[in-house]
Here is the input.
Amino acid sequence: MNAINLEAFLLRMPKVELHVHLEGTFRPATLLHLARKNGIALPADDEAGIRRWFRFRDFDQFIEIYVTCSRCLKEPEDFRLLALDFLAEQAVQNVLWSEVHFTISTHLWNGGKGDEILDALAEAMDEGRKRWGVGMALIPDVVRNLGVERADATLRWAVEHRDRGVVAMGVGGMERGFSNEPYAPHFAAARAEGLHTVAHAGEHGGPESIRSALEHCLAERIDHGIRAVDDPSLLAELAASGTALDVCPSSNVALAAVPSLAEHPLPRLREAGVAVTINSDDPPLFGTSLTREYLLLHRAYGWSLEDLAGLSFGALEHAFVPDRDRPAIERRFRAEMAALGAAQDARRGSIP
Here is the structure.
C-alpha cells in the first residue's frame, strides 16, 4: 500500500479517542480569536507565530502555554466554540466517540459559572451529534498538586452533571512529589455516584505512581501508564485485570517521557498482553492528530492495518459509552470498519 492510500485508510478508519484535553485542542486561529475577544496577551499575533510558540522547549513552558490557553476561555460561548471546533476536527478524522478531559476547577477559580459552562458544552455536544454524527463525553480532572478544595469543586460539578455528558472523574497534574491519597475519598464518592474513574500516572512517575492510582483513585483506565514496563509484576497484574493504558506516543516524546518513538515501551506493553489505546493528548501543542498517531505507529513499528484496526476496536471496547448510546455506536463502527476492509480487499484484488 502506498503512503497516500495508507493515510486515506487511517483517516477513514472509525476511531475512538479516550485521552485528549479540551484546553489542549486550541487551533491557532481559535486561540487568537478568543485571546483578542477576552483581552489575553499572547506572544504572537498570527497563526504562524502561535505555531512557533507551541514548539515548547521543556515541560515548564508546556504548562505555561496550557495555562495561557485555559485563560482564554471566559464566557460560556467560548467553551461552546472550542468544543465545536474540536468536534468538527474529530468528524474530519472519523473519530466517532471522544472522552475529553476538562479541568473545570481552573475555570471556576477564574470566575466561571459551572452551570453555564456545562450548558455551553452540552449544547456543543448535542450539535456535534446532530451535524456530524460524533459523540463526546467529559472527564473533569482533579489536579493533584492544587489541593483538596479544588478537588471538592471538581467532584461536585462531576456528580451534578453525570447525566449531562460527564462519564468519569480523573486526576492529573504533577506526579512526582504529590500523592493521590488525599483524593481517595473523592474517587470513592465518584464511584458511589455512578461515575467511572481514570488517572494520569506512570508518565514521568514510576510504577509506584500507577499502583497508587489503582489503589487510591480506583482507576479503571490509566492515562499514559508507560512506566508499567519497568515492573514485570505490575505488567502481569494489568494484563490479568484488563486495565487499559490510554497511551499518547507523540506526547510522551515531546514531553521527554521517552527519548524517541523508536524507544517507546508501547510494543513491549502490547507484547506483555496489556490493553492499550492510542490517543493524541493535546494535538495542536504536539503537532499531531489521532490519525497521525496511528500512521506513526505503522512507520515506527511496521504494524499492519489489521493491527491498527485492532487498536481502534480496543479503544471502543474500553470507552465509557453510556448503555443507551453504545449499541448505535458499535453498529456504525463495525459497519464502517467492515466496509473499509472490503474496499481494501477489492483494491488488493485489482492489482495484477
Summary: The chain is about 55% helix and 15% strand. The mean pLDDT is 94. The domain at 3-349 is CATH 3.20.20.140 (TIM Barrel).
